[in-house]
Amino acid sequence: MAAPKFEQALARLETIVTELERGELPLDESLKIFEEGIKLSKTCLKVLDDAERKVEILVQNKDGKKRIQAFSDGDMIPDSSDTPS
């Protein structure tokens, strides 16, 4: 079976947390979905780590050094037609 998409994994993880917080499941069922949650958590973290690496590559300067700066809602990636030649 293929790994679930990030959004699907996150939604299932939220459902698992809700079910466990209710405390109404028998111990064996709680352990079973807890294990599923751990696997989904690792999947989500891997996807986020991969996305972070891609972003770091995209924001590298021409000399290969990374630019670290805070991102705000108003920040936009300039259109190639907006950059000076």
- What proportion of the residues form beta strands (DSSP E)? under 5%
The helix-strand sequence is HH
Note the gap between the termini.
49 Å
Mean pLDDT: 80
Low-confidence stretches: 79-85
Please identify the structural class as seen in this structure: mainly alpha
The shape, in one word, is: rod-shaped
The residue fraction in helices comes out at: 55-70%
Q: Specify the biggest β-sheet.
A: none
Radius of gyration: 20 Å
How many H/I helical runs? Answer: 2
Protein architecture, described:
By secondary structure, the chain is mainly α. The protein has a domain at 6-58. It contains two helices and no strands. It has helices at 6-22, 27-58. Helix 1 packs antiparallel against helix 2 (27-58). Residues 79-85 have low confidence and may be disordered.
List keywords for this structure.
85 residues, rod-shaped, mainly alpha, disordered C terminus
